[in-house]
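User: I'm preparing a small set of examples for a lab meeting where we compare how different chains pack in three dimensions. I only have the primary sequence for this one, and I'd like the structure in C-alpha cell form so I can line it up with the others. Please keep the answer compact; I'll paste it straight into my notes.
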Amino acid sequence: MEPRANRDEQPWLGSSLPTRTALIPPLSAARWLLVLIAAAGIYFFQDFLVPVLAALVIGFASWPLYRHLLDRTGGSSTLGATIAILLILFFLVVPIAVAIAYTLDEIAIWFSWAVETNERGATTPFWIAELPLVGKWLDEQWVRYIGHPGALGELAQMVSGANIGNIYRAVLATGSGAFDLILTLLFMMIVLFFVYRDGESFAGELDKIGERILPARWERISRVVPLTIRSTVVGMTLIAIGEGIVLGTAYWIAGVPSPVTLGVITGLLALVPGGAPLAMTLVSIYLLASGSPVAGIGLFAWGSLELFIVDKTIRPRLVGGPISLPFLPTFFGLIGGVKTMGFLGLFIGPVLMALLVAIWREWVREAAGEEMSGLAAAYEPEALPEAAALETSLEGRS
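Assistant: Understood. Below is the C-alpha cell output for the 398-residue chain.
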C-alpha cells in the first residue's frame, strides 16, 4: 500500500476536475458556429442562392393557399406539392416566359430601327414636331441627336461608351443566356417542391433553433418575416404583374405599337410607387399627340379606373392593408436585385428590403417600449410614498 502522505499530495499540474469556466459561453459559441456554417454554405453554394431564395419567397407567399390545397388532397404533402408546382408552372412561369419572348422580339425590332436610322438618319415624326409648347424644342433635339446619319451612334457612344452595333449584337446575344435562366427556373421549381412537401417539419426545426439562439426575439421575428414576405409579394409583385397584363391588353386594344413591351415596362414600373400611373399617362399622351385622341382619352380613363380599383379595393383585401414600404428602399431593392441576381432579383430584391425595413421597425418599436418601461419604473418609486401615506390616513380615519 502507498503511504498516506502520498495519497494526500496534490497533483503537480493541479486538480484534474473541470473547475474553470469556459472562455466563451456555450450559447455564444453555438451562435458564432452557426453563423460560420451559414457563411461557408453561402460561399460554396452561392450559384444556387438565387433560385433557393426565389423558392423560399414563393413558398412563404403562397403557403396559406397551399394549406387549402393540402386540405383538399386529404393531407398528402407529396400530392399537394405536385399540384402546387403544376399550377405555378402553368399560371405563372409559362405566361411570364411567353411575355419575355414577345418582349425580346419587339426590342429586336426597335434595335433594327435604331441601326437603320443610324445609317440613314430619320426626320422628326409629325406628331412630335406639332406638340404644343415643346414641339419646336423636341424637333431641334431630334435633328441634333437622331436626324442625320451617325447621330444615333454618337449619342449611344456618349451615353454608354459602346458602339451601337456592339449594343445591337449584345442584345441579340442575350438569347444565349436563356439556357441559364431555364436551368435556374428548373432548380427553383425543384427546391419549391421540397419547400411545400417538407416545409412544416423544417419550420418546426427552425423554430427550435431560433428559440435557442434568439430566445427573446425569435417569436416576434418568426411572426413578422412571413407576414412581410407575403404582403410584399402579394401587394407588390403579383399586383404589378396583374397591372402589366391588364394595361398591356389595354395598349393592344388602343392600337399602341409594341403593346407587350410597354405592358412589361408598365409592370416593372408598377413595383415602384407611382410607376404604373406614370407609364399609363405617357402612353395616353403619345396616343393623343399621334392623332388618336379617342384612344388616348379612353386609355387614360380606363387606366385611371383600373388603378383606383386596385389601390383602394383589391390591394387592401389581399394584403390586409397598404404596403408602407418607402420609395427609396423599394428602388434600391429593384436596382440591387437586378444587378446581383438578374431577372429574379426584380422580385427578390424588394422582398429583402421589406424584411430589412420590417426588422428595423420592430427594433425601433422594441427600443421605444423599453424606454417607456424605464420611464414608468423611474416615476413609480415617487408615487409609492404618496400612496402609502394616503392609505395610512384612510386607515386612521376608519
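A couple of notes for your slides: The mean pLDDT is 75. The chain has two domains: 46-202, 220-373.

User: Perfect, thanks.
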